[in-house]
């Protein structure tokens, strides 16, 4: 694959992981996963990690993966580049893993004394990527190894922080987020 094709492949492959946290922000709320519990005087996760947000984010990412699979042949033909398709297991693994990665980051933030919304450079940009990739590997191992070659993984790790900063900045400007990171 050439560089542009690799980046397009990588971004397409990660779309089901990029969407869940956005969907959770838009449709989340409700009961916190940690139920308000604390550990060492700090919330375990905080009010921002809810059951409804996790469910909606996972469903949104999984449905997106299935939709992308349906349109992949047409988009591939239009772009003149191959695009990956997703099994239900792969789509679910990416979407649920993205949510788990973000939940894990909240746990780490609370343990290090950071409040909800506080910046944690590096972790904020890649937490969901690590979760998504690990869950996709477990849920659909052969799909994962065929889809995420080393060049594709490099493209994901380089492009994701840039996309994260841009999309969060837009969400902040639109009033959907309280902080631009």
UniProtKB/TrEMBL annotation:
Membrane topology, record value: Multi-pass membrane protein
InterPro entries linked to this entry: CarS, CarS_archaea
Chain segments annotated as transmembrane: 6-29, 50-68, 88-108, 128-144, 150-174
Organism superkingdom: Archaea
Subcellular location: Cell membrane
Cofactor(s) the protein needs: Mg(2+)
Top EC class of this enzyme: transferase
Pathway annotation from the record: Membrane lipid metabolism; glycerophospholipid metabolism
Catalyzed reactions per annotation: 2,3-bis-O-(geranylgeranyl)-sn-glycerol 1-phosphate + CTP + H(+) = CDP-2,3-bis-O-(geranylgeranyl)-sn-glycerol + diphosphate
Pfam families hit by this protein: CarS-like
GO biological process: glycerophospholipid biosynthetic process
Main subcellular location of this protein, as a coarse class: membrane
Keywords: Cell membrane, Lipid biosynthesis, Lipid metabolism, Magnesium, Membrane, Phospholipid biosynthesis, Phospholipid metabolism, Transferase, Transmembrane, Transmembrane helix
Similarity comment: family membership: Belongs to the CDP-archaeol synthase family.
Role according to the record: Catalyzes the formation of CDP-2,3-bis-(O-geranylgeranyl)-sn-glycerol (CDP-archaeol) from 2,3-bis-(O-geranylgeranyl)-sn-glycerol 1-phosphate (DGGGP) and CTP. This reaction is the third ether-bond-formation step in the biosynthesis of archaeal membrane lipids.
Protein's name according to its UniProt entry: CDP-archaeol synthase
Species annotation: Haloarcula vallismortis ATCC 29715
